[in-house]
Amino acid sequence: MTLRNPYDFVRFEPARMRKVPAPRHDVMTGLWGSLEGAITAETPIFIGHSEAGGGRAARTAASPPRTSLVDSEKRPIVPGSTLKGLFRSVVEAVAPGCVRIGMSSYRVPQEFLGCDPGRPEAAATAKVCPACALFGLVAQGGLRAGRVSVDDAVEGEHPGDREHAVPAEHPVVWLPVLSSPKPQHRAWYADPEGGAAGRKFYCHQPSIRTATGAVAADKLQNQRVKPLGAGTVFTFRVSFRGLSADELDLLLFALVLEPDMRHKVGTGKPAGLGSIRVDLVAGEVGDPLAELARGDQARRLEGPALEEWLRERVAAFTSTHSGGALDDLRRIWHWPPDDVTYAYPSREWFSKNSTARLSEYR
Fold this sequence. Notes:
- It contains 9 helices and 19 strands.
- By secondary structure, it is α+β, with helices and mostly antiparallel strands.
- The strands form 6 sheets. Strands 4, 6, 10, 11, 15, 16, 17 and 18 form an 8-stranded antiparallel β-sheet that branches. A 3-stranded mixed β-sheet has the order 5-14-12, with no helix packed on it.
- Residues 52-58 have low confidence and may be disordered.
């Protein structure tokens, strides 16, 4: 049986890191518009949330399972904040962007230290990474608003696929133990020089894993959940303003990736849940200044015209951002997944291989 760890790392590339002038919000320059998208669950998906009565008693087989987040009309949703964080993580990995959280135990290349929004009096000269320029940032020095907003994704029909089958209801499952990360295991989380190994991403899996053996109320690290079935569709909208052509290309790549890649989202990623495909089904892009000066109209994109536009724009991005980080993300998020078993090493394996690198486990 071939085993592979559920996660891997996208490397840092200091030579590719760049800071750009912090965008202004008092001018109407650049490209403005919106994109309408659909998310399709390629595997079962679970968007966790806090629930009353979620303590010890809720973990027994007789108690109701945790259910995915819903809106006021009881429709399953993926919060816009979750999606914005997902798309930002792609931009941070491949643009690349700064590191703001999660690396306190390891040295991060100087070029990647978190952006400073700058004091008001220094706003004209402040510089930020591409991720902060698109999505904004909050730091001790203040905050900067982003230029990309993402609405909640709400379950519904796929706008571009009217023949899409209704997803089957997924049964309740006990997830395997999903404990917190273990960055103290330096053999995996550090590079050979002792710095951070990179940004952590979870692999896609051919099937979901569930708990084995007896699971009872004292198994506090197991969760009993009812995922949404593979094939569940959500629709959402992304709005943007004041983007350069290169920034729009970057945003589009973060949204749709490449045909043989998929995103991961939600609870249970190490157990195989949360693989999703993101499609764009319509869009409108315009330049307000050009519209005022020449009477141009915002461009409405649908159908084959949208598909061709997306291919050109994503190709423009990948041709200028090829490198190790993009290759790493392609490998980790490759779809369909390899037919191997994804599982964390056993305690016995760690005892015998305490200094082995992650690549040796693969």
